[in-house]
Amino acid sequence: MPLERIFMDFIKKPMEIENRSMEIIAPYLKDLNLTEEEVKVYSRIIHAAGDVEYAPIIKLHPQAIAATKTAIKSGCNIYTDVEMVRTGINKRTLAKFGGEVFCKVADEEVKKLAERESITRSMAAMRSFGDKLNGSIIAIGNAPTALFEVLRLVREDHIKPEVIVGIPVGFVGAADSKKALAKQSQIPYITVEGTKGGSPIAVAAINAIIYMLDNSR
Amino acid sequence: MPLERIFMDFIKKPMEIENRSMEIIAPYLKDLNLTEEEVKVYSRIIHAAGDVEYAPIIKLHPQAIAATKTAIKSGCNIYTDVEMVRTGINKRTLAKFGGEVFCKVADEEVKKLAERESITRSMAAMRSFGDKLNGSIIAIGNAPTALFEVLRLVREDHIKPEVIVGIPVGFVGAADSKKALAKQSQIPYITVEGTKGGSPIAVAAINAIIYMLDNSR
């Protein structure tokens, strides 16, 4: 198609774009034996990455979607490693149930803790949430160190979040941290194998489940 | 390595993580004939995606880095399609030169314009910036419709931004919008071919250039 035509014809209606995108993604999911709700989570992740190669590397704990829905409906909060994840999560629907989204990575106290301990700021941020993580949803979309810290809090300090969406990205620690998440059996999780991931991927997973609870969509 | 060891040994220092990541990425760039500054932009994009397959699909206009540096140093603003891009851009360094980052997608007036015209909100947001886009940096990390609209403003309304970082994502319009960006010759651009892209990718490209101007790093 010549560019002049593309400029006239491109789809401008949000729901049409979303529906067309989900149609394009569907064939890549058909052999994965997913439930209808799992298809929604997978599709939104693939849509957010523009990358169908996510299909075989997404790892969903069998209780993850149900646990997330229950947690949201009971008004629990979401704690994130970075501001981009906090920004992306649909807070309007969450607020209807009483939940909020928190991120501490830019706090002065967290910055000092990170410098004092020679750790990353997102790791210090998760540590400083402490007991608040009990009964919460945790969403990590950037820092492997933040996910390692959450897993340490679960193992050593017996913190019990309802679900961990752990999808940090990169070549240093991300794959290992996500492997450790999938290996523990205490907390339902959503993750992605390997080096890929990132804020929009963690956001996509959470928003897909939030939208299941939003009757206006 | 057993998981217990990984928990003890993972790297916790931010600059060490970044340097190690850049080392891992370097071999994937060596045949691309890049300048030292281009390597920085490519590396940060690949780091943000956790995906070395970005290496051959990144498209940098020869003047893009120089134009972005000049624009930032002259205190120009950055206009984004979505809040996640606004959130991710390093505003501290930008502010030293007098620049700010703006996003209108959540504005009530933009919502009304989008409904009235049956277009996406990010498209309406770019349209409502209007003349402010002259001499600015535009950063699009989500919506193909926003990039199409910016290209229409350049063609039809003779808006002249200094540079367009256009890296929308997805299966509906993203590849076409980025092809159109790379085909025009008026405005220097940074983009990625195909369906991949997203907020952290657009943010990575801009921040890589901002960091070139930050002597404290």
Notes on the structure:
The structure is a homodimer of 217-residue chains. Chain A is of the alpha/beta class and 217 residues long. Chain A has one domain (3-213): Cobalamin biosynthesis CobH/CbiC, precorrin-8X methylmutase (Rossmann fold, 3-Layer(aba) Sandwich), CATH 3.40.50. Chain A contains eleven helices and six strands. A six-stranded mixed sheet of chain A has the order 1-6-5-4-2-3, sandwiched between helices. In chain A, helix 7 (108-117) crosses helix 8 (121-129) and helix 9 runs parallel beside helix 10. Chain A is globular. Chain A starts with a helix and ends in a 5-residue tail after the last helix.
Topology (SSEs and partners):
The structure is a homodimer of 217-residue chains.
Chain A: H1 3-9, H2 14-25, H3 36-49, E1 58-60, H4 64-73, E2 78-80, H5 83-88, H6 91-96, E3 101-103, H7 108-117, H8 121-129, E4 137-140, H9 144-156, E5 163-166, H10 174-183, E6 189-192, H11 199-212
Helix pairs in contact in A: 3-11, 4-11, 7-8, 8-9, 9-10
Element-level helix/strand string of chain A: HHHEHEHHEHHEHEHEH
In DSSP terms (H or I, runs of 4 or more residues), the helix count of chain A works out at: 11
Q: How large is the share of residues in beta strands of chain A?
A: 5-15%
The shape of chain A, in one word, is globular
Which oligomeric form is depicted?
A: homodimer
Helix content of chain A: 40-55%
Query: Which structural category fits the helices and strands of chain A?
Result: alpha/beta
